[in-house]
């Protein structure tokens, strides 16, 4: 089944723009910029920035909720219901503490792992059975930092980590056509071995 909705998670506002928690926004921004005519525009009925585009011949919606992270499900649920998009046709792109910077992983379903954005989306969709593209940001402990997790995700990455996160985004963008076509096995192989 192809992907019809790609959701980037983050927090709205300039004070959050460069923070680790906004890695999902960074990928969707890069994706929109790479596609002709895909301009993210505010859509009040979904409380989000939205663009309709075509990837690998598939009609795809791009979505950046403009709620805060822990209310992301409001936008995702509203757009999915309006356009009759099934949970298995949804890809949520988010920051992942359990992966080091530079690593990106694709998976379907699973727990929210403490990620409030995923918790809210799971509640809104009524299932955990949607796709996730996890962008590694590292964990403060694995990066030898003394910060609390809540503080860590709301700060900018170190320059070397930022470069690695950007490389993971670039690798992810290369497999986006396969993901949108529903060729998840091929996309996973390419992404996980790149």
Automatic annotation (TrEMBL):
The record marks 95 as: Stabilizes the basic form of H active site to accept a proton. Coiled coil: none annotated. It catalyses: an N-acyl-L-alpha-aminoacyl-tRNA + H2O = an N-acyl-L-amino acid + a tRNA + H(+). Pfam families: Pept_tRNA_hydro (PF01195). The active site is at residue 21. Monomer. This is Peptidyl-tRNA hydrolase. It comes from Rugamonas brunnea.
């Amino acid at each position: 089944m192809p992907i019809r909705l790609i959701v980037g998670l983050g927090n709205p506002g300039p004070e959050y723009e460069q923070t680790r928690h906004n890695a999902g926004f960074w990928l969707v921004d890069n994706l929109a910029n790479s596609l002709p005519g895909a301009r993210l525009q505010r859509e009040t009925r979904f409380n989000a920035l939205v663009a309709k585009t075509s990837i690998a011949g598939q009609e795809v919606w791009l979505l950046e909720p403009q709620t805060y992270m822990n209310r992301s499900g409001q936008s995702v649920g509203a757009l999915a219901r309006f356009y009759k998009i099934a949970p298995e046709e949804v890809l949520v792109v988010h920051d992942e503490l359990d992966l080091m910077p530079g690593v990106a992983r694709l998976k379907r379903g699973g727990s929210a792992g403490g990620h409030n954005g995923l918790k809210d989306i799971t509640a809104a969709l009524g299932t955990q059975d949607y796709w996730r593209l996890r962008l590694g940001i590292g964990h403060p402990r694995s990066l030898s930092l003394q910060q609390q997790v809540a503080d860590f995700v709301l700060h900018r990455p170190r320059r070397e980590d930022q470069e690695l996160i950007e490389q993971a985004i670039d690798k992810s963008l290369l497999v986006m056509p396969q993901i949108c076509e529903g060729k998840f096995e091929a996309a996973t192989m390419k992404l996980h071995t790149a």
